[in-house]
Structures are given as structure tokens and as C-alpha cells.
Amino acid sequence: MLPVNPQEDHRKRVRNYLISMGIRTLCFILAVVFTGPLRWICVALAVVLPYVAVVAANATQHRRIDVLGSVTPDDPPHQIDRGPTGPTGQAGHAPS
């Protein structure tokens, strides 16, 4: 199974965030309408929902390496022969 398209993943996360914020707005309205313990439950939900919405919105779908495959070179890197390194053409000998 291939991973979800990043644009589709983003769209779903934004939609879920907006739904959570809509529920939070409803909780504020219901906190004004209700009295007693139900009011405080609505207030508590209105306080907690932004944290839950942000954490859920930032949770991207996990992409597994075994699904995508790993990237490995086809051949091992080759050793480069340097040859003579001194200015006279002989390794290790300085000019006189």
C-alpha cells in the first residue's frame, strides 16, 4: 500500500482541525446557555480541544521505509588512485 498523497494528507488534517474548532465554539456557546456542572464540562472541553486539535493536525501519516523502499547505491564507491603527489613527480621526495 502506497502512502497518502501529501496534499490529501494536509487536506484531511485541516478538515479535522476545523471540525475540532467548530466543536470548541459550540462548547463556548453551550457554556453560556447551561448552568451547573454541565457548564463546567463545556468550559473544560473548550479549554482542552485546542491542544488536541493542534496535536492531531500536526500528526502526519507515517511513511514506512519498507513500503517506499530504501535507497542504496548499485556499486560500491571506487578507490581513486592518486599517483605521484610531489612537485617532482615522485611521491615523498622534495625538490633539491
**Low-confidence spans:** none
- Helix/sheet category: mainly alpha
The global form is rod-shaped
Proportion of residues in helical segments:
55-70%
Topology order in helix (H) and strand (E) letters: HHH
The Rg value, from CA coordinates, equals: 31 Å
How much of the polypeptide forms β-strand, as a percent range? under 5%
How far the N terminus sits from the C terminus, by CA atoms, comes to 70 Å
InterPro entries: DUF3099
Pfam families: DUF3099 (PF11298)
Protein name: DUF3099 domain-containing protein
Keywords: Membrane, Transmembrane, Transmembrane helix
Explain what the structure shows.
The protein has 96 residues and is an all-alpha fold. Helix content is 56%, strand content 0%. It has a domain at 17-60. It starts with 5 loop residues before the first helix and ends in a 28-residue tail after the last helix.
Give a summary of the structure in a few sentences.
It contains 3 helices and no strands.
Provide the descriptors you would attach to this structure in a database record.
96 residues; mainly alpha
Write the layout of secondary structure elements.
Elements (H helix, E strand, L loop, with lengths): L5 H28 L3 H22 L6 H4 L28
Helix pairs in contact: 1-2
